[in-house]
Write a structure and sequence with these properties.
It is built from 3 helices and 30 strands.
Length: 461
């Protein structure tokens, strides 16, 4: 994402990575933009919010981890600020400063790389805020030359020089490794491993950030040690095994452009597009004759955000023609990086690509936009060529606010929200067990899944 951009994120428990080597604080704010008291500050001295919804998980290899259970945050709280600070030097001296949010299945749902930090020693990196019944992530990048104390004071915090009171230990969590924001060509990579339940082992705690006043009458004590579990053994094969695995490709720009990505494996991929600005957004694939092919986006929505399904041709070169007014970022992702449909409610906005891997189920949908709402299914049962897609089946083609229930066959199925200019939510109901453990998984010609390192095998729940 670019500075100022925002996007809907699922209303689930997000794990937020802040890289590299900064101290992290979270401020939970009301509509007045202020904390209600010391309890609404989550930092090294008090790593767990009283509600349990927001907690600091620890630090590993220079990456600080924060967990925000969006569904459990009290209604009075409307914003959660993710703040980074330094004890020495300025934010501009932090190499590779970024903030990234991961869904429970390990999928990256938002990422902001800070590239314009200055002499400030504290910065609001990002914020999570309520919007249209869901939550959005905004790339903020607002620095404070007055440091963490000045930032905190602006949001109603009574800052003191003393140490904080004893607080409960953070929940153990195995953090995923950092993902490079830009690469020249796709290569295999590691994705976030799941939480391990094995016995934790201690590691070095980073220096504490400037601290806040303890509650009246309590003596200050040192913060607790942070622990993380060892890496769990690699589990069995992934739930999704159709298509190739490669490292995401990221490109940024402004206004109309032609995007070229070389070296991709042929077959379906996900194109994640984010545009900050007003006006028309259009995206087409380009044919070998350099003419417009399939139209992927046709939208007049401001600050467009969506995930699109594209097919990489046999030569491994994906070319896209973009029409946009304003700065943009596009990421090309493997199909396996799309979100999995579950019986938990998913809340998002804009076009998207979803995956169904279970048995027969009903997909309950609620669309709150005013324009076209179009959904296609790609049923992969018996389709063993990962370089192509079967013929799509259109199941929804409506305009305006809708409630729909779509019967899904047994997976694997690609559910493409082809047009959805507005917020929506989706949830599986009446989910049946699979008829067999391997039924419907296209593996006849997919060898990449066996070659891929453990990121995909560990990245799905």
């Amino acid at each position: 994402m670019i500075k100022g951009a925002n996007a809907f994120v699922p209303t689930v428990s997000l794990r937020i990575a802040v890289r590299h080597g900064v101290d992290v604080t979270a401020l939970l704010l009301t509509e007045q933009g202020r904390v209600r008291g010391d309890g609404d500050i989550v930092f090294h001295g008090a790593p767990v919010h009283p509600s349990g919804a927001v907690r600091l998980l620890g630090d590993e290899n220079g990456t600080a981890w924060l967990e925000a259970g969006l569904g459990a945050i009290e209604e009075e709280i409307v914003r959660v600020l993710v703040v980074g600070s330094t004890e020495s030097g300025a934010m501009r001296d932090v190499d590779g400063l970024s903030v990234e949010a991961f869904a429970p299945d390990g999928t990256s749902v938002a990422r902001y790389g800070v590239d314009d930090a200055g002499g400030e020693t504290a910065m609001v990196l990002a914020e999570l805020y309520r919007r249209a019944g869901g939550w959005k992530f905004r790339a903020v990048g607002q620095g404070y030359v007055t440091g963490l104390a000045g930032l905190a004071t602006d949001h109603g915090v009574d800052v003191a020089e003393t140490a904080p009171p004893q607080a409960p230990s953070p929940v153990p969590f195995q953090a995923p490794p950092p993902v490079s924001p830009e690469v020249s060509s796709p290569v295999p990579f590691q994705a976030p491993p799941p939480v391990s339940a094995e016995a934790p082992v201690p590691f070095q705690v980073p220096p504490a950030a400037p601290v806040f006043a303890p509650p009246t009458g309590q003596a200050p004590v040192a913060p607790p040690a942070v622990v993380v579990p060892p890496q769990a053994p690699e589990p069995p094969a992934p739930l999704w095994a159709f298509g190739s695995v490669f490292e995401p490709y990221t490109q940024t720009g402004r206004d109309n452009d032609v995007i070229t990505v070389d070296g991709l494996p042929p077959g379906p991929v996900v194109v994640d597009l984010s545009i900050r600005g007003e006006g028309y957004t259009g995206l087409w694939t380009l044919t070998r004759a350099n003419k417009e092919g399939e139209n992927l986006v046709n939208s007049t929505e401001d600050d467009f955000q969506g995930r699109l399904l594209a097919l990489v041709p046999g030569n491994g070169r994906l070319r896209l023609r973009l029409r946009a007014d304003g700065p943009w970022e596009t990421r090309v992702l493997p199909l396996a990086a799309a979100a999995l449909l579950t019986e938990e409610r998913m809340e998002c906005r804009g076009p998207d690509v979803l995956l169904h891997t279970g048995g027969t189920a009903d997909l309950a949908l609620r669309y709150r936009g005013d324009d076209n709402f179009i959904i296609d299914l790609y049923e992969l049962e018996g389709h063993d060529d990962p370089t192509t897609l079967p013929r799509q089946r259109n199941v929804v083609n409506e305009i305006g606010k809708r409630r729909e229930t779509v019967p899904l066959p047994e997976g694997p199925v690609i559910v493409q929200l082809k047009m959805a200019d507005g917020p929506w939510r989706a949830q599986l109901k009446n989910l049946e067990p699979r008829s067999s453990p391997s039924h419907g998984v296209a593996t006849a010609k997919v060898t990449e899944i066996r070659k891929a390192p453990g990121w995909l095998r560990r990245g799905r729940r």
